[in-house]
Each structure stands twice: as C-alpha cells, then as structure tokens.
C-alpha cells in the first residue's frame, strides 16, 4: 500500500523583508493551527512551508497551469471574508505583487523648474482575474486608481491621488 503525501503550500518570501516572512508564518499557523509550519532557506529567500490535506479546500483556485491562464474567482466563503476584511486582501496583494514608492516630477512656473515628490502605490499582475479582484476591492474601500497595460501582458495599477494614498498608508503601511 502506497502512502500519498499531503499537498503542500510554499510561500516564497524575500530575505529583504523579514517582517513579511514572520507575517506569512503567523498567517499559516493561524489558518492551520494543528499543522507543522517550517521555514526552508534558499538563496535570497525563505519559503514558509506547510503540508495539509485541507489545502485544496482553502485554495480552490489552485489547479494545473499558470494562474494567468486559468480562472481565479473567489468562492462564497472567501468573498464573505474579503467583504468583511477588504484591507487584509489589499495589504497582502500590495506586499506580494506591489510596492509603495516616492515618485517625482518637475514643474516649470515663471521660468523656474521645481521638482516635487509624492508617494504612490503600484500593483502589477498578469492575471486579469487577480487584477480585477484588486481593483474591485479598491473600489469597495473608496480608493481611486488607474491602470496601465505593459508590453509583457501584465497590468500596472497605480494609486497616486493624495487622499487615496493616505487611506492606503493608514491600512496597508510599508513592507518590513
């Protein structure tokens, strides 16, 4: 009789963001408290890893192929969680596939060129379904955004309006 291994989840976290590694481990331990969670070291990153037969229930979107080539849709219980905690989804998406930067521009007024800086958030993904989940959630919390298609097929979402950036700063905060 052959014993099959349980499905595994590996979350790759760059070593430059130790707080994200800790956060990923806490989240996995919270969702699967009876399972052993470990960190596996690799060049420039750590994988937070867990084995569980319950993973297919937690991630029904998982399947063969690339995520941008298959449908990614929330099942009802996931939709309820996102509706109840939209900032948690936005924070996770920004911390995985996004960033907060300080952009700069210059303006000429009365012949004098002045440089000014302003913060903004970016999110980039190739999956149109994931981009839609992100932008629908931004809409739900009142964050203004713009999208830009990249030649690679990925889509950039930009949040640059002062009030929207302030709202995101309040609930998302920097990577650490």
Characterise this structure.
The protein has 6 helices and 7 strands, in the order βαββαααββαββα. It is an alpha+beta fold and 176 residues long. The protein folds into 2 domains: 1-59; 63-176, Endonuclease I-creI, CATH 3.10.28.10. α3 (76-84) crosses α4 and α4 crosses α5 (128-141).
What is the domain total for the residues?
A: 2
Secondary structure category: alpha+beta
Q: In the CATH hierarchy, what is the superfamily of the largest domain?
A: Homing endonucleases
Shape: globular
Into which percentage range does the β-strand content fall? 25-35%
Q: State the share of residues found in helices, binned by percent.
A: 25-40%
Element string (H = helix, E = strand): EHEEHHHEEHEEH
CATH architecture of the largest domain: Roll
């Amino acid at each position: 009789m052959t014993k099959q291994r349980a499905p595994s989840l590996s979350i790759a976290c760059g070593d430059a963001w130790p707080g994200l590694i800790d956060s990923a481990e806490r989240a996995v331990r919270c969702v699967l408290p009876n399972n052993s969670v470990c960190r596996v070291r690799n060049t420039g990153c750590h994988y937070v890893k867990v084995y569980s037969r319950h993973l297919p229930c937690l991630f029904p979107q998982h399947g063969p192929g690339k995520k941008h080539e298959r449908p990614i849709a929330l099942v009802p219980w996931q939709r309820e969680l996102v509706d109840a905690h939209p900032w948690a989804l936005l924070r996770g998406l920004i911390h995985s596939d996004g960033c907060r930067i300080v952009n700069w521009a210059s303006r000429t007024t009365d012949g004098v060129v002045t440089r000014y800086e302003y913060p903004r958030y970016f999110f980039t993904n190739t999956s149109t379904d994931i981009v839609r989940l992100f932008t629908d959630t931004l809409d739900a919390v009142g964050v203004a955004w713009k999208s830009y298609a990249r030649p690679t097929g990925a889509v950039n979402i930009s949040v640059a309006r002062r009030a929207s950036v302030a709202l995101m700063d309040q609930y998302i905060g920097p990577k650490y």
